[in-house]
Design a protein that fits this description.
Beta-galactosidase, Chain A, domain 5; globular; 2 helices; 44% strand; mainly beta; 7-stranded antiparallel sheet; 10-stranded antiparallel sheet
């Protein structure tokens, strides 16, 4: 079901809900999903109270929630302020939120959001539309800003032995500020974990190519899992990764990317995501904890 609501100082928002979960999509700024969680329970997305409700201006604001960007990251291109009203169109079991074309890039962002009628599952079609008179090359980049205190889970491809397995199966991308000796990392054999710690303000980031096509974040007794289809045409940005995690003392971002593509004038590219929410998830400290949880929910 869909209803128009006010939220956090924004007069025009839209609540999409079924009997289990709800989402809040902003109409005054965006496109942005500012809330996702079980009904009447904590928001699994981070919110920035000092920014919630603001509109207009020429400063990019993180707000929190879930957003769509274009990769690779660059300043100022990536940081076009999404602080103006978006067009909201109702569809069956969901809505489409469309921003005006960005004045500096000619790119228009659009998120189509569909909620399962009876399960805690969300389907996104996230589009970048080229309004320039020339082709542009970019990649869709989808970022979920998760609330503090949880743990991100990135699965490694199936393990093997030497000399039977001679070829690599994944890619790992590190940034100049990535520090793998940081205690927030758990680098296991089957999973990499990154813990969000509000007491540590040193940022960390990692990118991975995950053939499994999913990553997750455990917090507040829930597991938020996002899946993306693999695309074998084209090259993924940031040295070939389709998932990234970033954290600081305020939040953790669970990010997905599509491959770099040339978008012709009036053309578009799309990144799909499938979200699933699981309840009653115990605290995760190790990859053994992850294996126990996955054996229960799969």
């Amino acid at each position: 079901m869909l209803e128009e609501v006010a939220y956090g100082g924004w007069a025009n928002c839209y609540r999409l809900f079924n009997d289990q979960v709800d989402l809040i999509i902003t109409g005054d700024v965006g496109p942005r999903i500012i809330r996702f969680g079980y009904i009447d329970q904590v928001n699994l997305f981070k919110e920035y109270p000092q920014q919630i409700g603001k509109v207009g201006g020429d400063e990019w604001l993180i707000f929190g929630g879930h957003r769509l960007w274009h990769a690779p990251e660059a300043q100022p291109r990536t940081y076009f302020p999404d602080v103006e009203p978006v067009l909201i169109q109702e569809i069956e079991n969901g809505l489409v939120a469309t921003q005006k074309p960005e004045g500096t890039t000619g790119i228009q962002k659009q998120i189509e959001i569909t909620l399962s009628q009876d399960e805690p599952e969300v389907y996104l079609k996230q589009r970048l539309i080229n309004h320039n008179l020339w082709a542009i090359e970019t990649a869709p980049w989808s970022l979920s800003v998760m609330s503090p205190g949880g743990t991100a889970i990135l699965p490694l491809p199936p393990r093997g032995t030497h000399p039977e397995c001679l070829l690599p199966t994944s890619t790992l991308t590190l940034w100049p500020y990535t520090d793998l000796s940081d205690a927030r990392w758990v680098l296991g054999r089957k999973f990499f974990l990154l813990k969000q710690d509000p007491t540590i303000n040193k940022p960390q980031k990692m990118g991975m190519f995950i053939p499994n096509g999913w990553g997750a974040y455990a917090n507040h007794g829930c597991l938020f899992k996002k899946q993306v289809p693999l695309q074998f045409e084209g090259i993924y940005p940031d040295m070939g990764v389709n998932f990234e995690v970033f954290t600081n003392d305020e939040m953790l971002e669970l990010e997905t990317l599509g491959p770099l593509e040339s978008i012709p004038p009036s053309g578009q590219i799309e990144l799909q995501e499938h979200w699933t929410l699981y309840p009653d998830i115990p605290l995760i400290q190790s990859e053994e904890d992850v294996e126990d949880i996955l054996s229960q929910i799969d």
